[in-house]
Specification:
Elements lengths: L2 H6 L2 E7 L5 E6 L2 E3 L2 E7 L3 H8 L2 E7 L10 E7 L4 H26 L7 E8 L3
Antiparallel strand pairs: 1-2, 1-5, 3-4, 4-7, 5-6, 6-7
């Protein structure tokens, strides 16, 4: 499976690994940035903590509840300094739905909520 095929899906199951190797899957929005996929998440999220210890990830198309609907592929993730570019790409990809979510976040979490986010860039293994 290639980057463009994964990026076409509405949701992507992102699996990260705890220190003991236990997988933790989370459905996320995804956008393509060149040869990589990008997502955003809270800087204090479990995904970020797990990625700091192990950058190996599994990716698969899924529905909004996280039920996998396609093939699973391996990748390598890296944390980005901020989430600005990831949020911008996701806003473009998801349109009104993303703009409403980001408006809601800014309204209820404060205008500085973007600063509390981090981008995650994912490169598929073998690409």
């Amino acid at each position: 499976m290639d980057v463009s095929k994964l990026a076409r899906g509405r949701y992507l199951s992102l699996t990260t690994f705890r220190r003991d190797g236990t997988p933790v899957a989370t459905p996320v929005w995804v956008a393509r940035q060149g040869d990589e996929l990008v997502v955003y998440t809270a800087r204090s999220s479990g995904k970020v903590k797990r990625l700091r210890n192990n950058n190996r990830v599994l990716l698969a198309p899924c529905d909004m509840r996280g039920r996998v609907t396609g093939d699973v592929v391996e990748g390598t993730a890296r944390l980005q300094d901020d989430a600005e570019s990831a949020i911008s790409l996701i806003r473009r990809e998801y349109g009104l739905q993303a703009r409403l979510l980001f408006w809601w976040n800014a309204r209820h979490a404060g205008d500085g909520w973007v600063g509390r986010q981090v981008g995650i860039a994912i490169r598929l293994d073998g690409s």
